[in-house]
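Dear colleague,

As promised, here are the two records you asked about, laid out in our usual form so they can be pasted straight into your sheet.

NAME FIELD: protein one
SEQUENCE, THEN STRUCTURE:
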Amino acid sequence: MGVNFKMVAITLQGLEEVLSNELKQLGAQDVKAGVRMVEFVGDEGFMYKANLYLRTAIRILKPIIKFKVKNEDDLYKNLLKIRWEKYLDVHGTFATKGTNQYSGITSNTHYLALKTKDAIADYFMAKHDARPDVDIKHPDLKVNVHIDRYGFCTVSLDSSGDSLHKRGYRMNTNLAPINEVLAAGLVLLSGYDGEENFIDPMCGSATILIEAAMVACNIPANINRKEFAFEKWKDYDENLFFAIQDSLIKKIRDPKCKIMGFDKAPSAVRKANENIASANLEEFIGVHHINFFNSKKEVFGPTTILFNPPYGERLKLDNIEGFYKSIGDTLKHHYHNSSAWFITSDIEALKHVGLKTSRRIAIKNSDLDCKFVKYEIYEGSKKAKKNDY
């Protein structure tokens, strides 16, 4: 067993509990959910595993020091005290990122990142008469500085690099594609675990379908990623990383259900199939050129239906009320024995679905405040004209 240390997983607003559950199931210790983040404890191998496996994390940070600051000068002096050669060679490269909630320091995040960069460069110049270069795209070390509203500054190393929503499988997208982390979060929030059929009736470029299939097959979310930031760290253990990766691959399973998507646009079907092939999931997902409003359920047994219909500024519709009414009518008449979920920011349009929601979860899609709603479609749902608004 390696030495345990605290880590922070960053996530989207509304997915904190989902990510906490993921971490607990993966074996994390001392899991504590916050706002858009979850703290946990694990060793180096667990850090590799978290980056590889977690579906709802955007990045995994490893805090190295925490101190109180009063102003910019205070921040600079404290950053100079860190022994940076532990993490970075003098001829290496680095990048900095800053976030601040404290009123005593400028809220300009670019300035905060610049101040951090200056401190690291000046540290090396004073000790080695040379300094590492800044490389925004592919640095050897990504340093994250966060100052909370009480003036406590946490300096962390970013173990992920590029945001973990960049899974590595998406080759083509349609207009307003859903973020992979959000798609995975919706699948997990719906309770889907691969035990029943899954349909995305407006599948677009197939992001939700791919994330659902990865859940059903227990495929690590980031198995297709080309690199993680920790692979450039001075203490990176390649043998340990490959051992962790192999152990996760051995737990992949074949799904027990049908996973399928529909789209009325031939171009969307083509892009969906290209992305599914890129994720190596062709044998598990079928995509069909079908208009959902002309469809009916053709699979036996319980089915999870999850889709991301047009709403808000994302995609404009001329008759949004009629569109949502058609969704409700199609579900009522043709999709018995199903749980239907969808995400929308158009709360008014929801009133026209004509079905009673059994769950409503607040969630963010980019800057949009959304609701993720569930409808239970029983045999008798045709009669359920009343809704809960």
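NAME FIELD: protein two
SEQUENCE, THEN STRUCTURE:
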Amino acid sequence: MKNIERVRTPLSDLGARAVPYVPLALFAGLGALLAYLWKWPCRFGAAWNDGTLQFTNFCYTDIYPLWWNEKLNEGKVPYFDYPVEYPVGIGGIMEFFRRIIPGDPGTAEAGTMFYDLTVILMAICLVVGVLMMAALAGPARRWDALWYALAPALILTAYINWDLAANALALGALLAWSKRRQWLAGVLLGLAIATKFYPLMFLGPLFLLALRTGRWKPFAQTLAGAVGAWLVVNVPIMLFAFDGWKRFYVFSQERPADWGSVWYFFQQKTWPFVGDPERLDTLGILSLGAFCLGIAVLTLTARDRPRLAQLCFLTLAAFMLTNKVWSPQYVLWLIPFAVLARPNWKPIALWMVAECWYFFAIWLYLVGLQEGNAHLGISGDTYFTAVWGRAITILIMMAFVVRDILKPDKDVIRQDGTDDRAGGVFDDAPDRFRLALT
């Protein structure tokens, strides 16, 4: 009987710890369902196959047309038979579903099944991501994860692309780091970078906090794990299908300023210097570098060390603001880190309004560009109010986070006396290096 009791006790403890997360999982499932229903005119109607209706019904997705555009309907293997314009993590998802979809791959039913299977995977990634975000926030703030589960912008954009998969991996990496499992954190981060490029930005905050605390070994382990995992999934494709593999990187380098980016506004309005297409890459790198330099100075000079989530938010926001493309679904990247950095509902709600306006504005702008459809859309000037609306609201949130770093008494996360719950080895670590400006 004693042995039985020893087995039951850990299981009952595990169940007790899991119970508070069940409602969050259900809310995340509700968010996933609402996102699926939002695509109703496309998924259950004819809008996907109509260049106008998919915009006027606001149900566009990349997933369905890419079944044909990436030649999956012809049985072509990503990278090997056709140069897919996505990192290998997404290419792997495409290939997995291509192999298991039955019947004639050239039919509309096959494309719809490809979408449905992808949605199931993304819904799982959303639920997992919400639970990991709640674990990162801690018992006192786990309900902050509802912002991720049910954010209006998430419901509108969840199934445009494969971003939720990268989110789950990135949040998993930070959760592993918070539990001081550095190798696992590195592996998950490397896989996240191999799926979408943005998690690469999180290495900067880890480096800066390692510099300030002197915790170099954990950082080195995570970096090695990230590099190793990225190489494991990329090198085989590089060796046997290099031309197909490099398509994503060549495309990213060569693409012009695109919809959503402030650079697109500057070019469309022919602003001098900043609107010059020949200077786009240089200006993008320099502006991102300026943001990162400012974040580095802030990290190394602040009286109290910034929290990891604050720096992850700032670097990711800087990446989005300076990128030459800013698709509607990129909001998914930022939601969990914005909330972990500063769970204050007023600026987040303002940002959600701006993101929702952008979501509707981009499709109305695109339909208005089509010949004969100008009466259905909006003008460029109206569209650009949405471009700047979300950029300005993100800058406002960044300013509040900077204030919280400079004045820790304003940081709601630290008001209960905690240092950095999600910081792992950085939590309550003494400073080893700090720059003094005065």
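A couple of things worth noting about protein two: The chain is about 65% helix and 0% strand. Residues 332 and 435 are 34 Å apart (CA to CA).

Best,
R.
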